[in-house]
Amino acid sequence: MKGSYREFVLQCLRCGGRYSPHEVHTWCPACRVDGALDALYDYDTLRRDWSRASLAGQHERGMWRYDRLMPLASSRFAPSLMVGNTPLYAKPELLGPGSPLKVWIKDESRQPTGSLKDRASALAVAHALECGATTVAVASTGNAASALAGMSASRGLRNVIFLPRTAPREKMAQMIGYGAEIVLVDGHYDEAFDQCLQACEQNGWYNRTTGINSYMSEGKKTVAFEICEQMDWQTPDLMFVPVGNGCILGSVYKGFADLLQLGWIERIPRLIGVQAQNSDFMHRAWHSGQSMDIVERRTPSSLASSINVALPRDRLKAMRAVTASGGEFLCVDDHSIVRAASELAARTGVFAEAGAASAYAGLCKYAELHPHTPQTAVILITGSGLKDTSIYLPNTATSVAAAATRAARPTAALL
Ligand SMILES: *Cc1c(COP(=O)(O)O)cnc(C)c1O
Ligand SMILES: [Zn+2]
Fold it and tell me: Whole-model pTM?
C-alpha cells in the first residue's frame, strides 16, 4: 500500500504543467476546465516492489486490488460495496463461426449500481472522504449520478445530484432509493454541469463531475487492469468502447498505459471509440483532422442517452487514447444500436443499455469494413439494459427496430 501522496504527480494534458496533489484537486489551475490532469506514479519503484505474481497472490477482489496505481493515500475510505471484479466472457464465435474476429465481452452491467460509472464514483467517495469533504455532488445524465448516490449511501455521505428533468426513470428511481438530494434541471446536461459547478464553488462541495474531476479516469481505468489479468496479460488486438464524454475511452487507455510502464503487458490494444450518429463530435473531429476547438458543436439527438452529448468533456483524453493506440473512431446509427442490443441479449444473455450496446454495434460495423483480418477483440458493455428499458419494449416509438429483429420469435408478440 502506498504510504503517502509523494508517490504521484498530476500533469496537465494541455499545458504540461506538473502539480502535487496537495496543490490541485480536479483540474489544471492554469487551464481551468480545459486542463485535464493525468496521475503519474513512481513506476520505477512499482516495477521493483510489485509484480504480476504478487498481484496473483493477493486476496482482495475488485478495483481496490490495484490501489497502488490509484491517486489516494490509501483505500481506507473505499465504499463498502464490491466494485469491479466483473466477468470477461469468451465469445469467439459471436460474429459467426466464419468470422476472423474473435470476441470477448467485458460485462460491466454487473456493477453494484449497474454501470461502469461505479468505478469512478467509488474513487470519488474515497477521495472526498480522504479530503475531509462532507458533501459530494455531480452533474450527470444518469449513470454517474446513480453510481455516486449508491457509493455515497454505502458510506453515509451526503450527496447532491444535478439531473436533467428528462433523465430515464429507472436511473432516477435508483437515486431516490439511495437517498440522494436531487436538483432537477430544466435543460440538458450542459445546464446541469454549470449549476453543479456553481453550487460546488459556493458551498465547498466535492465535485465528481466528469471532465472537471480528473481523478475519475483513475477509477475507470481499473477495467483495463481486470481485462489484462483475465486474459493472462495477453492484450487483445482491438477494444471497442462507447464514447459520450470520452472519459471511459481515455481511462481504458490510461489503464493499459500504466501496465505498459510496469512492463506487465507488451502492447496497448488499438482502441476503437464508438459514437452514436447524432452525437458524434469525436468522430467528426478525428476524420476532419481539425482542432477540437473549432469543430462544430451540434445538439445531440441519439436515443442512447448515456452517450448523447454535444461537447465531450474528456475530449483530450479520448483523442489521445485513439491517436496513441493507433485506433479509430466509428459512428453507428440509432437503428443499429437498438438492433445490436437485442441481438447481444438474445445471443449471449448479456442485457445492455443502448449506450453500452453501441460497443457491439461498432464491432459489427468494423467487421463489415475489415472482413478478412483475423483479430481478437474485447467489447466493453458499460451498463445494464435495466437502466433504460424503452429500447426493448415494443409499444414505445424507439423499440420498433428491436421488435422487427425479433419478429420471428413468439416472445416479441407476448410482451
Ligand atoms: C457514461 C456511459 C458511457 C459513456 O462514457 P463516457 O465516459 O461519457 O464517454 C457509455 N455507456 C454507459 C452505460 C455509460 O453510463
Ligand atoms: Zn494546464
Answer: 0.93
